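hey team, just a heads up i'm posting the complex here instead of the shared drive bc the drive is being weird again. everything in one block, sequence lines first with there labels, then the predicted structure for the whole assembly after. its two chains so it's a bit long, scroll down
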Amino acid sequence: MNDTLSGLLTIAALAGLLALVWAPLGDYMARVMTGTRHARPERALYRLVGVDPEAQQSARSYATSVLAFSAVGIVLLVAILMGQQHLPFSRDLPGMPWDMAVNTAVSFVTNTNWQSYAGESTLGFTAQMAGLAVQNFLSAAVGICVAVALVRGFLASRSGTIGNFWVDLVRVTGRILLPVAVVGAVLLLTQGVVQSFADQTITTVTGGSQVVPGGPVASQEAIKQLGTNGGGFFNANSAHPLENPTPFANLLQIFLMLLVPVALTRTFGTMIGSRRQGLTILGAMAALFTASLAVATWAETTGQGAAARAAGAAMEGKETQFGAWGSILFSTATTSTSTGAVNASHDSLTATGGGAALVNMMLGEVSPGGVGSGLYGMLVMAVVTVFVAGLMVGRTPELLGKKIGRPEITRVALYTLSVPAIVLVGIGVAIALPATNDALGNSGVHGFSEVVYAFTSAANNNGSAFGGITVTSTFFQVALAVAMLLGRFVTIALVLSLAGSLARQRPVPTTAGTLPTHTVLFGSLLVWVVLLVTGLTYLPSLALGPIAEALTNGVIS
Amino acid sequence: MNVSLTLTSTGRQAWVGLRLLLVATVLLGVAYPAAVWAAGRAVPGDDATIGQDFPVADDGWFHGRPSANDYDGLASAPSNLGPSNPDLLALIDERRAAIAEVEGIDPALVPADALTASGSGLDPFISPEYATLQVDRVAEERGLPVTEVEQLVDDHTSGRQLGFLGQPRVDVVALNRALDQALEGAD
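-- predicted structure starts here --
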């Protein structure tokens, strides 16, 4: 079997597995989020923490809960990271400095998992599993809660309420994420992923000495991918042989990243009573994903660029067992889902392959995006699409039975502008600072791409990096933390506000003049709107970075 | 704790959040990894291993891939050199010349994995092509028959997992360990 056939079969297997679980998992999640019964342990938990599970929240109240919960999460995580030397299994490592601790805490609570530290040399096991991995679950759950709250906004009829955040959070974590994570972790164990509580010092074959790091890796790895978090236990992330030991483990990790974002389109369709609508959203996501994968795969497997031509293949920064196909499928999945785990060095990808990773994030993480955030991001783009279509025919736009009036489009416009504004201002400030030049791992256009990538990744809550850039200065720690915070919570606040605005409306009946939104035509229009918004915003940065590099490479060869 | 708790006050929300977070820390941060650890005792299969340093200068071993961190187990990392970085191009040229000389082959025959650093810096694998072109040198250096060394390479070569996943590869750590054991057996 040749590499091309192997690569195509791997993609087919991934698509087949996702198609298999799409309906059952999507419908299961819909039942979990709409069910009225509370399990006994859930009731006990609500009593313990002081929540009335029957209370319904307005958008403002729901948003307050999200923000308060996340703020508490950041504070506790900073405390754990700075004081880890007092915890068990600390591996005699000192606490993190304040700027790194704040950056890391914000990073994990915002579901970004940008890492300015190296796990195996910086963190003890308790800080990893009881600090970081807990937020891997909870930040993912928050994303799903917000997406479901937005869907409820479309469904509500003048109630103004969009659910109960605490009930949503408990159900998503306990009934969806935890069971799947357990299965994922056990499957990873069978592939040799480590789950231990001690490092080992071994004598090497040549008689030297080597520390083989240990840790609760399998448990953290499963939720890292399932929750589209992406923070590696080790510095090399999923390139590390103890974190991603086999090609099957690699496929499983890619599958876990895509699982919830893809299945949530079915949950959405089922909740609103139009599965074709869910399928249309999924179709738009899949079209963007497939196009990006095709371009990037071409560049990596044909070894575009000077270094790849010199070596004979684009293998710098890639593992032997994954090769170009297994690496680029992973990098496309991780940047399209806001995960940010890596099984190859993105900095060393070909100019086109790295550029594709950058574009996947710039799309706003909607192909299919992070858990929850992908769905609400795409629904926001659907609102833009019906608005644009409404302008063309001169009618008040509607989506899913709700009028898109001034309050709604204001929030959507702010959403669309907020993340690019954070990214571009961040890049501008960083580039203007003389110290930035010394922080770059590569010179010239590729160095510029490192800065573009850093702020794009942070504000879109992806977390992967062109890792040559050194981001441990207080400026980068703080600036990227601000980008992550605003990129996550400004958008969430706007989405919940939109949900509340929709929930206060009475549904309008569908008429002959209503634009059908469950059709291939609408799906195509949605794809074009996403591309248009992204292109208008980011084309100059892309032209100065990866596009310039790709063109230069082609000419010089 | 009744309907009057409409969950509006920020302070009260934060207090609920903190209590929930502490419960989550115990369940997700301690019980879950402990349960997976217990499952790990019951699941068959060995823990994975990491690569070790078998540098090109050392004639008696099958050489591994270049590493950006010299196979330091506590510092996994790629080189992060960009796709047109002149430093990377120079490294590739140097490695190609050095390997061609050591193996006594045409520089054009050196495979890509031998010229590039891995993403982890701890890659335990090399391509079958790279292993094959090292057989003659290792056999000569170790005083072993070429066929025996070829057999060892074969024994430590894995095909694609499940027949189609990933790349064919040779575990260079296990191969070199077996090489040592073959010598002990011959003594």
